Structure formats: structure tokens, C-alpha cells
Fold this protein.
Amino acid sequence: AMRRQGRMGIRDSTYTRGVNIGPNEGKVLLNITNGSVLEKVYYAINATSVTTDVEVNVENSTLDAWAVLNLWGTGNSVYNFRNSTLIGRNYYPAGPSNDFANFVINQGAENAVINIEDSQLIMFSKTTNKQYAVSARTTATIPINITGNTKIVDRTNSLDYVISKNNNTGVVFSIAPTVSVIGKQGASLEEN
């Protein structure tokens, strides 16, 4: 089993993943806490081909990447984000394939739960690409719970909605009424 606890710092990595979780045989427990920082990478947490239990706990930390979580895995997994700053930066060449999100739930991802509590989701884009808070691309049933005083901030002030469902209905959102969206006037939480 992988176990990493305490303060971490990853900046300007030549490897494009802050933490990569791949095929494994034992339980993976990853705690990113106490002011830890993962920044200037493509994916702060990249979960691919996960075949067993994964538990990720991010608390009182900053994750700053193109995607905070890029999820492909199929194992039983829980991703908890609490009291953290979760930044998505889209500086990539303009084009529809470069529309992205802080949380990307890719087709093929399943058996996961994502909890976001009392955090800030901040989105930036320096091109015409969209940078959403969440991009739900799977048809699998994956609960995403956004609770507490979470703030979703679109720094480009251009999004009509901050959660892109990509015509998939598998991801189930539970969003507390205390969650706020800051950005374009009239912007909604979810794509209709």
C-alpha cells in the first residue's frame, strides 16, 4: 500500500502529473494536508487504470494545475477535498479538445465518490478554451457532493455554467444551497 502523509510541495515538475495513481494491488491512501502545494503540472492528481481501493484526502492545501483531478480509474475510490484551494488553469492552444475542468471525470471512470467541502474552485483561461469547475464525461453513476461554503470562481467571467455534463447523465451532483458561483452575471451551476 502507498502511504504519503504530511506537507508536500511539487512545483514546476518536468513530469506532467503531481501524483499519478495507476494499476495497484493494495489499498492506496494519499493524504495531502497541512498547507501542501502541488502546482504547475498538467494534473495535480491523475488516477488511471485503478483496480483497487483508493482514498485521497486533501485538506488545507493548494492544488493548482490544468486539472486538480483527472479521473479514469475503475477501482473503488473516494476523493475528499476539504478547506482547500483548487485551481484550474487553461493556458493551452485554443480548440474544443482543450476545453477542460478542475475536476475531469472521463468516460470509463466508475466506482468513485468525490466530496468537495468548504473549498474554493478557481478557474482561469488565457485563450477561448473553457475551464469548468467539473467536466462530467462518463455515463457511470459517480456521486459528486459539493457542500459547505464552497465557492466556485470563474476568473474569466465568461462561463454560462460552471459544471459541464457533456451530454452524459451518469454523474450525480448533490450541491448544497450554501455553495456560491462567482463569475459572469447570471451564470448557473449546471449545464441544462
